[in-house]
Amino acid sequence: MSGFRLFSVLVVAAAFMAPMLCVAADSSPSIENGKATFNTMCNVCHSTQKTGGPNEGPNMLGLVGRPAGSQPDFGKYSPALKASGLTWTVETLDKFLTSPMAMVPGTFMPMLIPDDVKRREVIAYLATLKKE
Ligand code: HEC
Fold first, then answer.
1. Of 1, 13, 15, 122, which has the most beta carbons under 10 Å away?
2. Which residues line ligand 1 (CB under 6 A)?
3. Rounded-to-10 torsion of CA 92, 95, 101, 105
């Protein structure tokens, strides 16, 4: 009887440990996966090139570190985003991309990434897009 109880405890412990190990393995998000997701969900509107590309949304080069609503070549920002006072960091992007409308009511940005892993991967990719 007590052997069975020990076994149950181990099974329960293993069930709790497995997801923790997955989270640990996921601590450094895949930039390649992020790029693939971006190219599926985002680059129809957002360019990642120095010149040209889509202009439905602002250019993503140099996004991390710049104030929200500040890309000079994009003339169609919502008043809400321009007035948000946000600066794009890994943290603010994580919250924004979870639900743009919840973070910045009135934003024109229509796309969200509900999946935590995918969102972190896209942000890791965005952080590689430097201006120079
Ligand atoms: C249908 C077009 C469209 C798609 C698809 C889209 N966006 Fe946007 N995005 C916009 C528009 C328009 C804005 C400007 C929002 C505003 O002014 O309120 C924007 C703004 C943003 C901003 C703020 C940029 C800045 O300069 O302040 C980020 C970050 C962003 N989008 C990320 C993404 C990501 C990541 C995806 C893919 C998951 C995505 N967008 C998909 C249209 C789009």
1. 122
2. 41-42, 44-46, 56-58, 63, 68-69, 71, 77-78, 80-81, 93, 97, 107-111, 113, 122
3. -50
Please report where in the chains the tokens 């202009």 appear, as a residue. 55
Distance of alpha carbon 98 from alpha carbon 118, whole angstroms: 11
Q: How far is CA 17 from CA 22, 27, 116, in A?
A: 9, 16, 19
Placement of tokens 């640990």 in the chain: 24
Cβ–Cβ under 8 Å, residues 59 and 74: yes
pLDDT digits (tens, 9 = 90+) for 26-83: 579 999 999 999 999 999 999 999 999 999 999 999 999 999 999 999 999 999 999 9
Q: What is the pLDDT of residue 26?
A: 55
Report yes or no: 126 and 38 within 8 Å, Cβ to Cβ. yes
Type of residue numbered 8:
S
